[in-house]
Amino acid sequence: MHKSSREGFGQILGTAIGAGTALASVTLFGFGAVTVGVTVVMCSVAARALHLGEVASINVPVTALIVIGPGISENNAENRMISTLIGASIAIIFSYFAHPKSPAGRTIDQIASLGNKAAKLLGVMSEGVAAGFTQEEAGNWLGMARLLIEEVPRVRAQALEARTYAKWFPTAEKDEAEDLYSRGVAIEHTVVQVRTIARTLFDSAVDGGIPDSTQRKIAEALSAASFAISSDIDELLSDVNAGENPQLTADMRIVGAELVDLLINESPQDDQEQTARSMSLVTNLDRIADSLDQTSPALHEVDTPDLPKGEKVLALSPLEQGREWRKRIRKVLPKGLRKYF
Questions:
Q1: How is 143-178 classified by DSSP, letter by letter?
Q2: Domain boundary among 82, 98, 114
């Protein structure tokens, strides 16, 4: 309901600005083809000046053209406004019943979906490395990893929604929301490392492939990471309040340490660049382990950005916009009048 209220407000705001812009342009320039072009330009300027997000700014020119289309009149503009208000109100009311789960439940589903996809990709890469992969196969893995990265903003937005929801809805559990938010950040870090691993394997394939002496151990390390991620997701689905299980990442760290020892022993015989790439895989796996057990300072000591400005109704808050306009007005005023602003 909070999300629907925000988007409904964006629709109403965009409609009001669009209808007002249409009325103003017709009043100034009359009705005609030139008016349509001027209206679109004025709508763009208004949306930019008010720092509207995509939710509201898209509705501005659309509404203006709808109002102009059948012939401009104040009655037409008022009907459009009333229709939008009624439609948005109905949508907001029924949105509460449209989603069978709470924001926390939807956050769990999205984290689980993305985590299982990352685990599956690691499993595929593990099998490929063990069998001796080609550059084409590595390219497919890298493409799949890039697609996973594209899902990160959606998971982040859902985790932020659950966090916001817990602050104002009395029955929501704030501790659960904060934990899910941390898990959302952790899965984001995990997916980034999976993409880096895919890129490293692709670069290795371009330069001739991973040496046979280390293939099996690298495949084992990737398989351990895949199992740890999928097991962590299973625990999240079974009990959202369960704490992190360090045993899930213990095998990852053990296999990673064994891989480092093997790479050091084999380094005199193997290509130095390939050895360096394989060493970087161990770093990626360690970061995945730190994300799963949430021991990395990067998860807790670095602020995660809020929603992208385009997804907000107002990209800047009214207070920020007021300060910005105040600075602009002061610049054009004589020095004697600036003290009053």
A1: HHHHHHHHTHHHHHHHHHHHHHHHHH-TTS-HHHHH
A2: 98
Give pLDDT, residue 5.
65
Taking residues 250-268, report their average pLDDT. 82
Specify the pTM.
Answer: 0.67
Same domain membership, residue 269 and residue 130: yes
Q: Tell me whether residue 331 is in a domain.
A: no
Helix axes 2-29, 74-98, angle to 10 degrees: 170
**What is the C-alpha separation between 198 and 187, in angstroms, rounded?**
16
Backbone angles phi, psi at 53, to 5 degrees: -80, 180
- What pLDDT does 176 receive? 81
Neighbouring C-beta atoms of residue 263, cutoff 10 Å: 22
Amino acid sitting at position 155: V
Residue range 272-295, pLDDT digits in tens: 787 888 888 889 999 999 888 888
With respect to residue 143, please indicate whether it lies within any of the assigned structural domains.
Answer: yes
- Whether 321 is covered by a domain: the verdict is no
